[in-house]
Amino acid sequence: MTVSAEAVVSDEQRRVAITSWKTPIIFGLFTVLFALLPLLAPRDGASTFRLVRSADAAIQLPELVLPANATAWVCVVLMAATTLLAVMWTRAQRRLPLWLTVIYVVILLVGFLAWTSAGGTLPMIGLLGGALALATPLIFGALGGVIGERVGVVNIAIEAQLLAGAFMAALVGSATGSPWIGLIAAMVAGVLVSLVLAVFAITYYVNQVIVGVVLNVLVAGLTTFLYRQVLNANPETLNSPPLFPVISIPVLSEIPVLGPVLFRQTIIVYLMYITVFLVWFGLYRTRWGLRLRAVGEHPQAADTVGIKVAPTRYWNMMLAGAIAGMGGAFYTLVTNPQFGREMTAGAGYIALAAVIFGKWDPVRATLAALLFGFATNLQGVLSVIGSPVPSQFMLMLPYVVTIFAVAGLVGRSRPPAASGEPYIKS
């Protein structure tokens, strides 16, 4: 009896639905905790949201001034209503839609920003633009993680791929004087790291998590050694790569608030937009994606219908490494004109958390990475405007968001069935 690849993938859809109360519970918990802010520490004055960066912008918007405490209470009511809706949805054994979580998070952020910036001015374009910049390498890394796990290989080595990409982009970009060649070199570096992971995981059946962690440590040590011995010895010629220029898209860049954030970016950010779409489209709308998901769900059945499991995993792991390498290039070809030791600072692990938070879906993982980038940038902006929140809490905010997001907002999720499992052909 033959089994089609469509039947292998659709097996997940036929699983019995199990009601999960994790999301309504976490909604309720955050609603209660947030209500304590205006109740126990009311803030006088108004919060000003600046929506335009400069006076010469084509479209001018007035500053949005909101009473801090009143806005916080309105958001508490809206959060409670959203929580109630989530409870009703869950009781009816219906899957909570993504837009409901997005709405809840937006309401929470608006209320928190209004409360914490009382008496100050919050530059929204700078806040959102910085969040996108911090999230871009996370998105590339998360996309690499999604492809890897969907094909059955746990890509713990995202951190190593990002770091190797950043190093090679700086080295080759400086030596050639071309950021484009540096970008290609970063992709090649990511491919090489992912290829090492693939060889041990696919051919030699070594535990994928252990190999990934070892690769992260190995690449960190190797790049640190080469940084000291090579780049530091010739910083002007080997560690001063040219940066990609900012490109403004006509008309779109003049859209209020979102225009300067989304459409006044470098080519790597625009490539990120395209990559997210291509990975999503390819994963769910093409034969390549169907075969990839079949191998990640049931490799034996996929092998039965003629799909070559090992080559499929090899090629897709190399693709995942190339995408993650592009994220590494962002560090040295956009944000920082030189390579620094361990400059990724654990971004690969946060990207892996975004994969889990996004339920192994490229679009959801992208939104998760944007949330983590926003949390990281928020702590810097609030410290500048004089937020009453202790600086120690703001420094740990991105990691707190990561933990709560993965533990609470994900709900019931299941990774691809064969993720992390070596396939031994019988």
UniProtKB/TrEMBL annotation:
InterPro entries: ABC_transp_permease (IPR001851). CDD domains: TM_PBP1_transp_TpRbsC_like (cd06580). Keywords: Cell membrane, Membrane, Transmembrane, Transmembrane helix. It holds the Pfam family BPD_transp_2. It comes from the Bacteria. It is found in: Cell membrane. The keyword Transmembrane applies. The chain crosses the membrane at residues 23-41, 70-89, 96-118, 124-146, 153-174, 180-202, 209-227, 262-283, 314-333, 339-358, 365-385, 391-410. It is a multi-pass membrane protein. This is ABC transporter permease. It comes from Microbacterium profundi.
